[in-house]
Amino acid sequence: MKKKIALVTGGFTGESVVSLKSAAVVERTIDKSRYDLFKILVYPGDWYHEAADGQKVPVDLNDFSIQVEGKKITFDGVFNILHGSPGEDGKLAGYFDMLGIPYTTCDALTSAITMNKGYTKAIVQDIPELFVARSIQLFENKVENLEMIQKELRFPLFVKPNNGGSSIGMSKVKVPSELQEALDKAFAEDNQVLVEEFVSGREFSIGVYHAKGKTTVLPATEIISSKEFFDFEAKYSPGVTEEITPGRMSEEETERVKRIIERVYQKLNCKGAVRIDYFLEYETDKFYFIEINTVPGQTETSLISQQVRAIGMEVKDFYTELIEEMFTST
């Protein structure tokens, strides 16, 4: 008998647009011979399944079930493709944990911690061969911050919402006069903001997942952006960024990155597929951790999809491995 899988998408943030695009690809690609898929859209105060005739079928939040043609449907598991809150910050994971429904992504604690860039860096910074840029975590948009930042950090700087994604609200600040505007922009998105020193290096993004009893580090993608940095436009507008998969790394770099990525995945107790962004600094070739994304995009051109294809694997089979792994790890 086919397993019933809820494909959860939508969300409470600006990333919901990307989430819907990812969900459309998963819906089209997933192995229909193995799974009955039901797309569930999650918005503030409005959780529903869209029936074939376009009708909105509300979700019963008591047990995460729906009624289809007079029949109650409950789910064997959840394919979580909801970027941002509540799919990536642990809220949905906690809800599913209470209901005893397995899901494809990290657990509630890991999701909550990794959504916070500052906390994540504090946990991973003692991993051998891994470096983090000097930074300050801000909890209030106070005028005193300007002096403190200029005293403790060197320009240029990155200013970003601490819990955000898709580079929304992020700025590169080259001179002190640009700082307040960047802080205002970041604080408009989040009540915590991370200010960190700019690392000059080659930028990469790499997928890693656990299935069939082993952790697989996918080939890294090298990101060459025509923009100042890999911002929202660079991520989602065709032609703005060149993405090379596998990225150009020496054998030593490839092996070192693999070692570090496996340790990050293990130390943060990750599950399912995650994507980790990093720099290799120009002068030193040091690995600088940028951030981790625990619900990486699954659009046709997304980095994870490129990397899966680069190892000669069908994306459909990759999804099957993620789904089957959630049943073995519960």
TrEMBL record:
<feature type="domain" description="ATP-grasp">
    <location>
        <begin position="117"/>
        <end position="324"/>
    </location>
</feature>
<dbReference type="InterPro" id="IPR011095">
    <property type="entry name" value="Dala_Dala_lig_C"/>
</dbReference>
<feature type="binding site">
    <location>
        <position position="291"/>
    </location>
    <ligand>
        <name>Mg(2+) 2</name>
    </ligand>
</feature>
<keyword id="KW-0961">Cell wall biogenesis/degradation</keyword>
<dbReference type="GO" id="GO:0008716">
    <property type="term" value="F:D-alanine-D-alanine ligase activity"/>
</dbReference>
<dbReference type="GO" id="GO:0046872">
    <property type="term" value="F:metal ion binding"/>
</dbReference>
<keyword id="KW-0963">Cytoplasm</keyword>
<comment type="similarity">
    <text>Belongs to the D-alanine--D-alanine ligase family.</text>
</comment>
<dbReference type="InterPro" id="IPR005905">
    <property type="entry name" value="D_ala_D_ala"/>
</dbReference>
<comment type="function">
    <text>Cell wall formation.</text>
</comment>
<dbReference type="InterPro" id="IPR000291">
    <property type="entry name" value="D-Ala_lig_Van_CS"/>
</dbReference>
<keyword id="KW-0547">Nucleotide-binding</keyword>
<keyword id="KW-0464">Manganese</keyword>
<keyword id="KW-0573">Peptidoglycan synthesis</keyword>
<dbReference type="InterPro" id="IPR011127">
    <property type="entry name" value="Dala_Dala_lig_N"/>
</dbReference>
<dbReference type="GO" id="GO:0071555">
    <property type="term" value="P:cell wall organization"/>
</dbReference>
<feature type="binding site">
    <location>
        <position position="291"/>
    </location>
    <ligand>
        <name>Mg(2+) 1</name>
    </ligand>
</feature>
<dbReference type="GO" id="GO:0009252">
    <property type="term" value="P:peptidoglycan biosynthetic process"/>
</dbReference>
<keyword id="KW-0460">Magnesium</keyword>
<feature type="active site">
    <location>
        <position position="166"/>
    </location>
</feature>
<feature type="binding site">
    <location>
        <position position="293"/>
    </location>
    <ligand>
        <name>Mg(2+) 2</name>
    </ligand>
</feature>
<dbReference type="GO" id="GO:0005524">
    <property type="term" value="F:ATP binding"/>
</dbReference>
<keyword id="KW-0436">Ligase</keyword>
<dbReference type="InterPro" id="IPR013815">
    <property type="entry name" value="ATP_grasp_subdomain_1"/>
</dbReference>
<feature type="binding site">
    <location>
        <position position="277"/>
    </location>
    <ligand>
        <name>Mg(2+) 1</name>
    </ligand>
</feature>
<comment type="pathway">
    <text>Cell wall biogenesis; peptidoglycan biosynthesis.</text>
</comment>
<dbReference type="InterPro" id="IPR011761">
    <property type="entry name" value="ATP-grasp"/>
</dbReference>
<feature type="active site">
    <location>
        <position position="15"/>
    </location>
</feature>
<keyword id="KW-0133">Cell shape</keyword>
<dbReference type="GO" id="GO:0008360">
    <property type="term" value="P:regulation of cell shape"/>
</dbReference>
<keyword id="KW-0067">ATP-binding</keyword>
<feature type="active site">
    <location>
        <position position="302"/>
    </location>
</feature>
<protein>
    <recommendedName>
        <fullName>D-alanine--D-alanine ligase</fullName>
        <ecNumber>6.3.2.4</ecNumber>
    </recommendedName>
</protein>
<dbReference type="Pfam" id="PF01820">
    <property type="entry name" value="Dala_Dala_lig_N"/>
</dbReference>
<dbReference type="InterPro" id="IPR016185">
    <property type="entry name" value="PreATP-grasp_dom_sf"/>
</dbReference>
<dbReference type="Pfam" id="PF07478">
    <property type="entry name" value="Dala_Dala_lig_C"/>
</dbReference>
<keyword id="KW-0479">Metal-binding</keyword>
<dbReference type="GO" id="GO:0005737">
    <property type="term" value="C:cytoplasm"/>
</dbReference>
